[in-house]
Automatic annotation (TrEMBL), chains A, B, C, D:
<dbReference type="GO" id="GO:0006260">
    <property type="term" value="P:DNA replication"/>
</dbReference>
<dbReference type="GO" id="GO:0003697">
    <property type="term" value="F:single-stranded DNA binding"/>
</dbReference>
<comment type="function">
    <text>Plays an important role in DNA replication, recombination and repair. Binds to ssDNA and to an array of partner proteins to recruit them to their sites of action during DNA metabolism.</text>
</comment>
<dbReference type="GO" id="GO:0006310">
    <property type="term" value="P:DNA recombination"/>
</dbReference>
<protein>
    <recommendedName>
        <fullName>Single-stranded DNA-binding protein</fullName>
    </recommendedName>
</protein>
<keyword id="KW-0233">DNA recombination</keyword>
<feature type="short sequence motif" description="Important for interaction with partner proteins">
    <location>
        <begin position="146"/>
        <end position="151"/>
    </location>
</feature>
<keyword id="KW-0235">DNA replication</keyword>
<dbReference type="InterPro" id="IPR012340">
    <property type="entry name" value="NA-bd_OB-fold"/>
</dbReference>
<dbReference type="InterPro" id="IPR011344">
    <property type="entry name" value="ssDNA-bd"/>
</dbReference>
<keyword id="KW-0227">DNA damage</keyword>
<comment type="subunit">
    <text>Homotetramer.</text>
</comment>
<dbReference type="GO" id="GO:0006281">
    <property type="term" value="P:DNA repair"/>
</dbReference>
<dbReference type="Pfam" id="PF00436">
    <property type="entry name" value="SSB"/>
</dbReference>
<feature type="compositionally biased region" description="Gly residues">
    <location>
        <begin position="114"/>
        <end position="124"/>
    </location>
</feature>
<keyword id="KW-0234">DNA repair</keyword>
<keyword id="KW-0238">DNA-binding</keyword>
DNA sequence: TTTT
DNA sequence: TTTT
């Protein structure tokens, strides 16, 4: 059982092409550099301000393969995952820490990932597929505005 | 592949005990009534305001069993799920629609669910377990503040 | 103070053009019909399955104006908000309930909203602008991979 | 306008008491070390596994004051914020990077924060207070299960 | 119907 | 009603 929630949701653009490597057992690992930009008008100067944050995202397995195949520098993407901080040794022998987002869901947002669904899944989202138990329920069949509902 | 994101995150308290039923094939279905309360100070009157929203949450399978066993009226719980609107027929034969949150993760937040982990899982969270590929990474081993880092 | 969390995150497409109305005091209210589609391969039949969920989103104030001006039928959009269930009376005098997402953030995701930033804000996101206290911090200035970091 | 989403949601426990400092202009800054723990049953060994992730959370202003006053080592808390990576110089003159969660919402989850609401707000959540435009809408007034709704 |  |  999990004791805690550790969830990250990002929408941003890739700064470089993704890098895919394979572990000895053949599992794919894809690293992504993702930019999220905030802009706002400064209250004092009245000028438009902008700040970009860069994120390290890592994908494993099937998600890594899809990311490596369909994402490119500039791609806009939705990423859901969890924070993880890795410890490593710098060349000077000192400990360093790097925080990454370990992705467990991904969606392309710029229409360049047309073939993505073909291989059978855009992430570890099987838990989101409607369960058999719910199969008797039906979605609303009417997307228009209902005059019957007073706003 | 999913084309869209449909995600709900709730933290609230149960208004009544959960209700568990079993489908013909033996799968559990648990319904929960969850209250989320917002309060704020009104800018005009300066008075404290409060508003409670009631949510219908439905859990299936293993999650339904855990919810039925460990949650009670008053329990504080974290729910993650997706929105789903069901169509049904009122006694007058007219269509009605009910929107529910179909849970795919749950966590008790008031310490009454101590035994929860025993049975093997607090939801459909297997995708969040660290993957084998990451097993070489180590968590930071120190929860204290690092004097080395200037704030 | 809030006692509870009530958060919804959606990415989907508009089924119809947004509808904007103005309250007596001149404040805009915009209603949106948003589709989120899930698709998955059925484990038993092996066939591709698909299910679309329709959401009612309502925006107020500045966000309503932006939504009404920039969104159109087919637009892909990110919505963040909270669930709210309204009670209303059907023509038969009976109570009905409609659940909506009250938006507090919105982002266009298909590049058709280029001019959106001009008016000064894409939502109630002022709390997300970097605060003055943080202004001494600098973002990482390099979106590339760092050879120094072993993966 | 924002171009991107950068959102973190954490539920965890403080590893140490929060540390509050004041900037020259009197604004509070509070640093928090937060642990989120995942546990799962290993499929191969069948043994229970556990992994704790430590997060650095920083709060500013009013939120910093509340965090400093009400949170303690061991407190369970909900944090919502955004990722930010700061660059700093190690004693060896080399660049280091530290990733933090800049909080913009917080909620105590263990009942020790009884007096929290008194001072007027548990975070930058004013945007979540029901807006005047919505004041004509009423919440559902019935939290019980409705026999009328067939499950 | 919950909770603080 | 959308979208891929």
């Amino acid at each position: 059982m999990a004791r805690g929630i550790n969830k990250v949701i990002l929408i941003g653009n890739l700064g470089v092409d993704p890098e895919t490597r394979y572990s000895p057992n053949g599992a794919a690992v894809t690293n992504i550099r993702l930019a999220t930009t905030e802009s706002w008008r400064d209250k004092q100067s009245g000028e438009q301000q902008e700040k970009t944050e860069w994120h390290r995202v890592v994908c494993f397995g099937k998600l890594a393969e899809i990311a490596g195949e369909y994402l490119r520098k500039g791609s806009k993407v939705y990423i859901e995952g969890r924070l993880q901080t890795r410890k490593w040794q710098g060349q000077d022998g000192q400990d360093r820490y790097t925080t990454e987002i370990v992705a467990n869901d991904m969606q392309m947002l710029d229409g360049r990932g047309e073939g993505m669904g073909g291989g059978g899944g855009g992430g570890n989202r099987s838990q989101n597929a409607p369960k058999k138990d719910q199969s008797e329920t039906a979605p609303m069949d009417d997307g228009g505005f209902d005059d019957d509902i007073p706003f």
